[in-house]
Design brief:
It contains four helices and five strands. By secondary structure, the protein is α/β, with parallel strands linked by helices. Strands 1-3-2-4-5 form a five-stranded mixed β-sheet, with helices on both faces.
Length: 215
């Protein structure tokens, strides 16, 4: 049977429980405070991790953007390829004139005839003033010694993969078997060397103008 609430025994038990609660409350409060601090610390750590990942991601994206921009800039401004042994004659200018003359039998620039030649093979020597206009349009002119007509067929075979911007012509004034020319580029060869095809590949369509010129 439970004691009467107002009895001495009941009051003593109530006081005892109160003292027990008073004794335990500081510990519980401390535990709650510690738990709250731990949650706050963990939340702060998560926020720091997220911020660090964002910084890393943004830095990586920045590097990619810089690399793309640099790559695009390099592609836009990279120098055109060159072959070993190819000379670069000085720029003699351009423009259309009548009766143009040159100080070389294989000119690579300069004033020239207003007419442009058709690309293809010329068994009779092509007028240099026409050839220069072809070079300006991006053609490669392969001059061969007119005293060796067989070189024409050899050059045709060597450059057969190209349908445009190749001119093969006899030349009565050159001292070498073959002289390959492009706009401000020149190289002499002792024969219809396989490298001539690489010359065509490298310098074709690199004139100051780009106009059609089918073979």
């Amino acid at each position: 049977m439970s004691p009467h609430p107002q009895s001495k025994k009941a009051k003593a038990a109530k006081a005892k429980r109160a003292r027990a609660r008073t004794t335990q409350d500081p510990d519980k409060a401390a535990s709650k405070q510690e738990a709250r601090l731990e949650r706050q610390i963990e939340q702060h750590r998560r926020q720091e991790r997220k911020a660090r990942l964002r910084r890393i991601r943004n830095a990586a994206l920045g590097l990619v953007a810089v690399a793309v921009a640099a790559g695009g800039g390099w592609l836009a401004f990279r120098p055109d390829p060159e072959l070993a042994g190819v000379t670069r004659p000085s720029n003699r200018g351009g423009g259309h004139v009548a009766g143009a003359t040159y100080d070389s039998p294989t000119p690579t620039s300069g004033p020239h005839d207003a007419r442009a030649p058709r690309c293809g093979t010329y068994r009779d020597p092509l007028d240099p003033a026409l050839a220069v206009h072809g070079l300006e349009h991006g053609a490669v002119v392969l001059w061969y010694d007119a005293a060796r007509p067989e070189l024409a067929d050899e050059l045709i075979d060597a450059t057969g993969e190209w349908d445009t911007h190749v001119i093969i012509s006899a030349n009565e004034e050159i001292d070498q078997p073959v002289v390959a020319t492009a706009w401000r580029r020149l190289k002499a060869y002792d024969a219809a060397d396989p490298e001539i095809n690489e010359f065509v590949r490298t310098y074709r369509q690199r004139g100051t103008e780009r106009q059609p010129c089918d073979r």
